[in-house]
Amino acid sequence: MIPVSEPLLDSRALALVQDALQSGWISSEGRYIAEFERSWAGFCGVAHGIAVSNGSMALALAMQALALPRGSEVILPSFTIISCVGAVLEAGCHPVLVDCEPDTWCLNVREVAAKISSRTSAIMPVHIYGHVADMAPLNELARQHGIAIIEDAAEAHGAQYQGRRAGGLGTIGCFSFYANKIITTGEGGMAVTDDANLAERARSLRNLCFRPERRFLHTELGHNYRMTNLQAAIGVAQFERIEEHLWRKRRMGALYTERLRNVRGISLPVERPGVTNVYWMYGVVLDDAVQMDAQEFARRLRERGIDTRPFFLGMHEQPVFHERGLFKGERYAVTERISRRGLYLPSGLGLTEAQIETVCAAVEECLA
Ligand SMILES: *Cc1c(COP(=O)(O)O)cnc(C)c1O
Questions:
Q1: How many A from CA of 53 to the centre of ligand 1?
Q2: pLDDT tens digits, one per residue of 122-141
Q3: Same domain, yes or no, for 230 and 247?
Q4: Could you identify the atom of ligand 1 that is nearest to the CA of residue 280?
Q5: Is residue 89 assigned to a domain?
Q6: pTM
Q7: What percent of the chain has pLDDT over 70?
Q8: Shared domain check, 156 and 179
């Protein structure tokens, strides 16, 4: 079976983990945390990085650090992972959904503009499958209305928008370093920002809001969102190879697009002018004229030894939110369509050209 994803780990990661172990610094203090934070923030073009236990907690931390008014509205796409809505709710805010674009699968900025109200306090764009959302008009909206932008860049390590890296384009950016992300720490995440006050608040909230002057006196309720030095050691080793990982992803994207361009019945990922797509996962969407849905397509590919994953199912279709009285009766046509007709093909960092050819031949066969 050709897997959907696999990490690329090397002896350097092993050596750094061994060093961390031997140093005795195995919890969240130790030099690899600071080094990983410094490297990653610098890579994103911002001053501060706050490493955390996973990407979902990076989003939760970013929301809490912003201290948005309780009950205020945060606009985000329906087509995303549940962590986004979870972070908004945990911060006591109200999620307001928008549909996504049919080609980039990222949030539709015109719909965002239409849903801004006097209660809006933030927008949370999500860079889907490696393509950056249209940040310039979002930043303009944020400026006009004095609201924050929380980027979910978990799937867009190193992706660029007008020459600047994802994660460093808004008020605060959030990353995941889960095993299938472009660089990994196994489990892990980071929030990055240029705002020193926000970074300081995030650091405190990450570590139970201990106060530097009197450790066990608390004036605010924090969490333990800390990353371990062992995970950060893997992160440092992975970061050394970021350019190679990005090259592999972009090469994979180019090979798939070249080979599948003329196959009838599917649409492929795009790359808008000014954007560098990093093809975290190579998604394809079945045309309406094709009789089968993505589930059937996945079944046929699996029969041919090819593993795939379905696209997200929209947040407005989640029973867990309907039970809470959220998003009932809302419809987002593009999200509904791609969630039923989209899947992603094997996109691992170890994927060979021969495997890509095998996948493409099978895709063609399934559609014939
Ligand atoms: C992976 C991912 C996350 C969550 O990251 P975890 O580390 O798994 O918690 C958040 N947002 C998006 C868009 C993701 O793809």
A1: 11
A2: 999 999 999 999 999 999 99
A3: no
A4: 15
A5: yes
A6: 0.97
A7: 100
A8: yes
